[in-house]
């Protein structure tokens, strides 16, 4: 009959006391399906090795789920405990840091190039280490004398287990690297050792938002959309000041080359209706005559000249700019999975007016009402002028911005990040330093539920200095514009009921329909009838939609 483990220990102890060589034959154990237990001089059991493939693969699976668990099952306690402790400590540390950190801190961390590099390297190292544990567990647990088919099966299962670990960690590393590349390509680095705290240490930041209409059907580039986002860095309150593309007689800094060339504003007396002398043509004019543009803040003379004009008219210092190619905007919307938009009570024509202003038959129509649109149709909603006017279009553009903020969460951005990154890199330029981004995230996060507000310098704005009580885009009162900006910033925030995250408004944006003042030769708009009462200050963007 088989001897007990105690009997074996006693016999080996007597042999050692008599000075004879100790023989250690394998001891058969009538238990689970592992091959044998070997005992050391103190009678302690040593590592297992299974006699069949199934238990070996199951043990390898344990190491895939929790690194170190397979080693513990094989009675390699020290190694298994060290591996498992490292894994558990890492997971607990990440969970604690995530739960204790503010959301803005977490997002700010993802906007740090150094952190992203470290994260990508860490994920790759973790993937390699985890796969090494899986393979090592299988090699320790694998029975000897397996047939060829069993060896192939075992190797295939281990490869799949390694792939299951490597795929998510590798994707995370690739995502971190893509985010780093996007940050470094899109956002410049602060020069001269300027600290981020100094760059965002102002009580208010003013950012010029520009949408250009560059495209294969366009001769030159014009700024189709121009807004200034004025952000209170303490409360996050943000006001959008919209500037119509057809604003005439725009002014420039006193004493500048453009002010000397156009003392009465950007205007051509010999061709007073020329579309080449509207606000949206300032960019193109600087490219034709770069000597009149300031040297900064960018290397683009068109942006520099527009920058100086907007500062002069609004009486604010612009800190940064963001320029978006409108065709690229469509690609970004596609990458985010489209946008739900209220087109309005009537179908919206796509096309119908050529870049030169000639009226043609529309290519097609976007159905009325709430529609989920792709990037191309979303861009058409933003740019359509047929049976409409520039001011209605400005309203639609502001509403589209509100829709994006309502409907596209960080989860949307993360799940579609690769496409968004590619589209953004090709279509967006800015001078916002990447070191400032974490601080800007904190500002945005501190805003909480504060709604965006907007003021548009179009005939829908009340102007008591004008005979009809409405702002005149053909002869803008710059002093009045500056006063509106000052008063709006100083006034209490406009309020609005929270808007549903995925629903759209039930009416078209409020506009100054019916006014033809300030229209250039490139506009062939037919304004709808019915003019709402002019507004006297900022309105909530959600409310205006």
TrEMBL record:
Name the residues that span the membrane. 81-99, 119-140, 152-171
Record's compositionally biased regions (Low complexity): 504-516
Q: Which UniProt keywords apply?
A: Membrane, Transmembrane, Transmembrane helix
The protein's matches in Pfam families, at most eight in alphabetical order, are given as:
LytR_cpsA_psr
Q: Does the keyword Membrane apply?
A: yes
| Disordered: annotated segments | 1-27, 492-545
Which portions of the chain have biased composition (kind: Basic and acidic residues)? 7-17
Q: What is this protein called?
A: LCP family protein
């Amino acid at each position: 009959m088989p001897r007990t483990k105690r009997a074996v220990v006693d016999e080996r102890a007597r042999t050692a006391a008599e000075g004879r060589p100790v023989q250690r034959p394998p001891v058969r154990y009538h238990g689970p399906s592992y091959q044998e237990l070997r005992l050391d001089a103190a009678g302690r059991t040593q590592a297992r090795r299974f006699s069949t493939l199934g238990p070996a693969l199951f043990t390898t699976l344990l190491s895939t789920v929790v690194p170190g668990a397979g080693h513990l099952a094989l009675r390699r306690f020290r190694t298994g405990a060290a591996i498992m402790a490292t894994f558990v400590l890492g997971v607990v540390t990440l969970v604690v840091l995530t739960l204790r950190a503010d959301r803005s801190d977490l997002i700010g961390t993802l906007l740090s190039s150094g952190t992203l590099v470290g994260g990508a390297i860490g994920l790759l190292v973790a993937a390699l280490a985890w796969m090494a544990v899986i393979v090592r567990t299988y090699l320790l647990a694998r029975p000897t004398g397996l047939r060829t088919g069993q060896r192939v099966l075992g190797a295939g299962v281990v490869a799949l287990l390694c792939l299951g670990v490597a795929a998510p960690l590798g994707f995370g590393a690739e995502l971190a690297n893509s985010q780093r590349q996007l940050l470094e390509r899109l956002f410049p680095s602060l020069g001269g050792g300027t600290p981020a705290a100094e760059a965002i240490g102002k009580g208010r930041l003013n950012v010029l938002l520009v949408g250009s209409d560059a495209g294969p059907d366009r001769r030159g580039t014009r700024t189709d959309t121009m807004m200034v986002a004025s952000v209170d860095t303490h409360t996050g309150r943000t006001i959008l000041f919209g500037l119509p593309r057809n604003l005439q007689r725009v002014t420039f800094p006193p004493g500048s080359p453009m002010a000397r060339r156009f003392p009465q504003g950007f205007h051509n007396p010999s061709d007073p209706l020329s579309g080449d002398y509207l606000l949206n043509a300032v960019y193109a004019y600087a490219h034709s005559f770069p000597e009149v543009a300031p040297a900064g803040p960018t290397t683009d003379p068109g942006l520099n000249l527009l920058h100086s004009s907007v500062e002069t008219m609004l009486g604010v210092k612009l800190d940064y700019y963001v320029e978006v190619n409108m065709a690229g905007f469509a690609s970004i919307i596609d990458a985010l999975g489209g946008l739900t938009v209220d087109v309005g009570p009537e179908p919206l024509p796509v096309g119908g007016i050529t870049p030169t202003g000639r009226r043609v038959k529309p290519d097609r129509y976007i159905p009325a009402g709430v529609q989920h649109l792709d990037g191309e149709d979303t861009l058409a909603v933003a740019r359509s002028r047929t049976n409409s006017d520039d001011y209605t279009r400005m309203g639609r553009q502001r509403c589209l911005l509100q829709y994006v903020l309502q409907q596209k969460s960080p989860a949307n951005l993360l799940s579609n990040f690769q496409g968004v990154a590619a589209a953004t890199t090709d279509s967006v330029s800015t001078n916002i330093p990447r070191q400032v981004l974490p601080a800007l995230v904190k500002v945005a996060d501190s805003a909480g539920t504060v709604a965006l507000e907007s003021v548009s310098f179009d005939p829908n704005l009340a102007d008591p200095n004008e005979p009809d009580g409405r702002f005149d885009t053909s002869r803008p009162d710059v002093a009045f514009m500056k006063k509106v900006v000052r008063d709006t910033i100083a006034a209490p925030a406009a309020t609005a009921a929270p808007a549903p995250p995925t629903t759209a408004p039930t009416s078209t944006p409020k506009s100054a329909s019916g006014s033809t003042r300030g229209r250039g030769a490139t506009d062939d708009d037919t304004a709808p009838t019915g003019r709402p009462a002019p507004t006297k200050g900022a309105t909530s963007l959600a409310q205006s939609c």
